[in-house]
Structure formats: C-alpha cells, structure tokens
UniProtKB/TrEMBL annotation, chain A:
Pfam families: SBP_bac_1. Residues 1-29 form the signal peptide. The keyword Metal-binding does not apply. This is Sugar ABC transporter substrate-binding protein. GO terms for biological process: maltodextrin transmembrane transport; maltose transport. Keywords: Signal, Transport. One of its GO terms (molecular function) is maltose binding.
From TrEMBL, chain B:
One of its GO terms (cellular component) is plasma membrane. GO terms for biological process: transmembrane transport. InterPro entries: MetI-like, MetI-like_sf. It comes from Mycetocola tolaasinivorans. Belongs to the binding-protein-dependent transport system permease family. Residues 55-269 form the ABC transmembrane type-1 domain. It is a multi-pass membrane protein. The chain crosses the membrane at residues 12-36, 56-77, 89-110, 143-168, 189-210, 216-239, 251-270. This is Sugar ABC transporter permease. It is found in: Cell membrane. The keyword Transmembrane helix applies. Keywords: Cell membrane, Membrane, Transmembrane, Transmembrane helix, Transport.
Amino acid sequence: MNTRRLASLGVAALTAAALLTGCSTSGGSADGNSVTWWVPNWDAPAAKELVADFTKANPEIKVKLVETTADTLANKVSVALNSGTTPDVITELASRTQQYIAKDQLTNLDKLYTDAMPKSDFLPGTLADVSTGDKAFAVPYRWDNLGLFYNKDLFEKAGITEPPTTLDELKADAEKLSTGDTTGIGWQLGNSDSTILRFFGLAASAPKDPATNVDGAAHLTESSSKAALDIIGASVRDGWASKSSLEADSTAVRQLFINGQIGMYLGGVYDLVELQKNKMNVGTALAPGFDGPSKTAANGWVYLVPKASKNVSAAEKLVSYLTTPEAMNKLTLTFPARTSAAQDDRFHTDLAAPFAAQLSDHSIPAPYDPSWGKLAPTLFAQIQAVAIGQSTSEEAAKTIQQAADAALKGK
Amino acid sequence: MLKRNRKVGFYLTLPAVLLMAAMTIIPVVSVLQRALSGNEAFGRLFTSPGFSQVMVNTALWTVLSVVGALVLGYFGAMILQSKYLRGVGLWRSLFLIPWIIPGVVGATIWKWNFSRDYGQINQVLLNMGVISSPIEWLSDPNLVLFALVIVQIWSTAPFVILLVSAALTGIPAERYEAARLDGANGFNLLRYITLPAVSATTALSALTLVTWALNAFTIIFVATKGGPAGSSTILPVLLYQAFQTGDESMVAVIALLQLVLSAIFATVYIRSMRNELEESAA
C-alpha cells in the first residue's frame, strides 16, 4: 500500500516537474555563458553578423537570437518583464522604457557610459527617454522621426514644381494630385502607434496653444487637437487623402506610394532603401506644418537588460559591443543615436538630409509617460471617427481632451 | 479489494485533478479578486461612451457567426453525406482546412482578401461588373463587422461539418426508406428525420460556437484592431486594449464580465450534455 502511495505521489511530482520544465520559454538561460537577445526581425540579418563578430572576440559567451515583430513586441516584453522570465538583452522602443523603469524591471546601465561611450556623444534628448535622474537604464542605438516623401513624376505631371512647405500648400498639392486612381496623400490610420505619433507632431505645431511634452507626458489642448484632426482626419473624409488610409499601416502606405496610388506620405528615412530598390523617382522634404516646417515626434530603439536576467554581466558585455560606433552604424536603418557613429556617407545624402534636419531642428520627443499609453485607444478611435465622418474635429477634440485630462490625473 | 482499487484510482487521478484545479481555479479566483479590489472600474466600464456599442457588437458578432457557421456547417455535412459525391475523404479534408490553419494566418489572408486596393473580393466584383468602385470592407463602419463575421464563419463551420457528418452517419438508412415508402419528400425527410436525429449535436455545436465567438480575438485584432472608431470592437478586443494601456482593474472587470457570459453558456452546455447522456443511457 505504502509503495503504491509513494508511486502515486511520485507520478504527481514528476508530472508537475515535467510541466514546469515545459513552461520554460525563450527567456534567458541560467548558464552564465549564454545570452538570449530579443531582436526585431528587421534587424536580424545585421544582428547575426554582429553576433558572429562578438562571439569571435568573446568565445566564452554564447548568444542566442530570438526574433520579435513590431506588432507583438510591446505585449511580449511586458509579459516577460512582469513574469520575471526574461531574456538577457531586449531591443525595445525608447518611448516604452520609462514604464519598465517605473516598475523597477531594468538593470541600471549607467556603468556602460564610460570615456569610450560618453553621454555627451548621444543625440540631444535620446538619454532622457531612458533615464531617471542621472541614471540611464538603457542604451539608445537608433533614432529617427518623420519627413515627407513625394513622387517627383506625379508632381511634374500635376504641374507642381516644389514640395509643399506648409499644410495649406500640402492640401492644395494633394488636391491637384487627386485624379483617377491617385490620391494626394496617404496616412497610416490602420496602425495606432503610427497614427497617434503623426497626430502628436501636428498638435505640437498648432498655431494656437500647441501640445507640449512635459517630462514625457503629452499635454494636449482642444485647439491643438482640433488643428491636427483637421489635417489627418478631415483629409480622408474630404477626399484628398486616400480612403485606404483607414486600413493601411506603414508598409501598406509605402506600397501605395510605390504603386503611384498616393503622391505623398509622412514616413521614416528607413523607407528610402525600399523606395530606391523600386527605382522610384522620389523626393524628400521637411514635414510641412501650419506656418513652416511641422514638428514630428522623434523616437528610437534601445537596448535593455532586464533586472531578472540571469546573465547580467555577459548581457552588459554584449550591449557594450553593440553600442560601439561601428556596430551602431551597422545595425541602424535610420540615424545612429551616437554622433560619432553618424560619419558614414549614407547618413549625409541629399535624400537623407531633410530627415537629419527634421531630427535636429524640428522634432519633439515622443511622449513616454504611461498617461500617453492610456490615451492611445481614445486618440486612435477619435482620429478614425473624424476620418469616416462619424465625428467633427470639434467633437473629437473635446472627447480627446476629456480623456487626456483623465489620463494625466491617473484615472 | 474494491476499496483498495478505489484508493489507487484516487491517487492516480490526483495529479491531473490538482493540475486542472490549479490551471482553472487560481486564474478565476485571481480575476475575481482583482475585479473586486479595483471595483471603480465597473463604473468606468458601464458609463464609458463606447460600452453600449461594444455590447451590441458582441451580440451581433455572436449571433451572426453562430447562425452562419451552423447553416454552412449543415450544408457542408449534407453535401458530404450525398450518395452522388465522389472522393468524400478528399472533400472532407479540404473542408477542414480553414479550421486547421492558424488563426493569425487565416485572419491575414482575409485581411488581404478584403483590402480595398489589393483585395481579391473587390477585384472579382469589379470584373463581374457587380460594383463600379471598390468597397471598403474593413474601413466602412457599417460593413466591417459583417465582413469579419464571414471570416469567423469560414473558420468555425468546418467544426460543425465534422460533428454533424458524424451524427448523420449514425442515422439508420431504414428510417429514410420507411419514410419514403410513406410518401415523404426531401423536405419532410429533413424536417422529421434528419434534424431531430442531430438535435443534440446541433445544441452542442451551437454552444461551443457561442463560447468561441465570445472569446474571439485574433481575426478582429489582426484585421482591424477593433476599428474603425470602435466599429468592430467586441469584449475580448476591449479587454486587450485595457491590457495594452496597463489598466489592470479594467482588464479584470472585463474578464469577469466575459467569465459570467461564458459561464452562463457553459452551464447550458453541461446540462445539455448531461441530458444527452441520460437519453443515451435510457
């Protein structure tokens, strides 16, 4: 009898152990010489080369790459950090870093900022997104914002000689371009993050009571929201922006542009590679604003080392390597976060120049306060509501303001 | 001897019981505890301007997708049962494909099918001259939920085909022959023999489909993320949005609401299963 009881308990213990073992994920290993790095799929090819170089110089450290995707990254990182089963290094969006710092989920990486990597070498504003006080909890490696892409052939056909510099000109040009299967401009209204970042840039450039970013928190006003909604939402409703905007993300908008279905769009400099691959006769310019260039929200990508990492020391070694100017230059598709890494010719072409000028002279940091995340669904829904004619800009701006006030109060 | 066997049986099932309990009771208690500790979220949820639209969407989504899957599933099962059909195994395998392929893949395929500019559906309708300009399936607030219901029906109808096919196979051929001798036509055979014989299967299928519909997320999120302007937001999508914004008390409250709705249908499901077992035993 005792033997049977023992056998039963043994089965229970083994089953539980097997299940718990089976629950292990792509998180870090307890092996001190192994580092798991979650890297976005667009960085994966270059990351593999960098890892090969790193392991050649550090044969005692084994690096395992796990590819992530933009759509699922925020959720995946949040779940991993909350559960405590984490990889050792994560490539994550800079604007999401503060929420992890607030929960004490990240390793303080201040010691990585040495003479070889001084904080003064980083672009202005990049470290603010990842720091609390004077302690930095991540290392930025790539920074970018938005500029205007326009189709030179379509412009010529419509008799437009110069890219628009103000929103009035943008609207006039878009109306001229909107003939047959072509529409003047396209927006990424099928993707929440892309939509609200474009909205925020326009709201921050509003002529009256512009929106501001105070310590990472977006402070909107009804007039600034209305001004932005009058452009993004109303352009779709009024027909000078493509109806496809409502179902398009960044990739789809770029494809519409390549197909000649839209004449202009606001995008990141990383799109240049794909546009040139398609032999587009493309032009770039500063983002048009209400009275001159518009501000656009600048954001970037950073390396995090979770506090729950089992191999902090090896992870820090990998991050140190990845943030050398050479490695940073190799991995970034936009502009490197360190000025010393931006010497390569590809950052100084005529087509890249407006994006560099936009970044240095006309950018505003993307909000990173948790209140912005809470506001996001309302913003996204209200912008769409204006675009489909369900709300006016005034009504939507009022709803957004109520939600923004509530989010700032922490309700 | 019998007593000893019972004890052995008890200990052998104990690990599974404990694991099942841990995997079901702990999350349920956790949701309840979180929902009640953040009970201010009940007020916020019920008074939020979009809540009534979410509930209407959820009801429409559930009713249409369940009815659609049942009708299509019955239709498919009848076809598979037809004596004129050749290669039944091949057809059955083909019909099951939508149910087998991963939800994200299916949703992405349909997102492209419904695309205003690149979609096959618009292209076919334009070529046939049925429409003169592309339909905005996924960005017209009056159409989007119906378009997504089609996808849910497409992915769940094979389950009904499978269940109903099995039930139809169990109907003795003699019943149909006897009814024909009595002068029954096709409709009468369906009304008085086929449908009563598969009624228990229909009930079980319907209740499973309701549970799936109430928990559906992938199709909507991949295709529209609940938009435009909340036109395709149902409860699970709302829950995910609350999760994304870090509103944990709201997540718990929405999860509790879903739990209650699912529990109501689960109760009906279990009762109908019990009745079926009792009928079989009798």
